[in-house]
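Section 3.1: Structural characterization of target chains.
Under the original work plan, the team committed to producing a structural model for every single-chain target entering the pipeline before any wet-lab resources were allocated. The record below documents one such target. The sequence was received from the expression subgroup and is listed exactly as submitted; it comprises 206 residues.
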Amino acid sequence: MLFKIGFALILLGLAALWIDRRAAHFIYDHVNARAHKFLDSITHYAKAGHWLAAAVLALVGTALARHFGARGADLELVITYSLAFIASLTVGSMVLHAIKLLLGRRRPRDDMEMGLYGFLPLSFNLEYNSFPSGHALTICCVAVVFTCVWPFLWPLWFAIAAILAVTRALLTAHFLSDVLIGAGIGLIAAREVLLLGFPGYAPGWF
């Protein structure tokens, strides 16, 4: 199911390219300072560095616990899901950054504030790094892994992921298509990593 949803998000993202610029200008004109401040305060919960650090700390913590004699199934689960997240983020990020570098796209704010808009394929210019969204990819990987750990709370994890991903468009840090395609890549990458690299650790409906 996640593969189909991820693929659908990518298709929606491609379709959104037709309305991206108008949508971004509308958002830029209608999101007030108070809303912008709130969105900016929560959007960083989708940042890759934070979750990667948490996964590494979890691995270090379990290693120390084992060193001092702790044993149990819970430790094995922490190790497995931490590694699964790191692998998912790595695979998804490789795809995402290859697209960023190959296609090259300015961010919405550059259009509003400097009049710079569009794609510049094969530019390999880090200023053209809007497409797709890394934050959306990251938080979708998190939602997939959390669903494996606490499957009964899956609506909550994916709702949080959707909200945090959308903040990127509402802050005009990314176009809508950037967010949709980043989220789709994240779902597919996490699903494939779990099913192929960690069989038996994902719900059957994945």
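The chain has one domain: 2-197.
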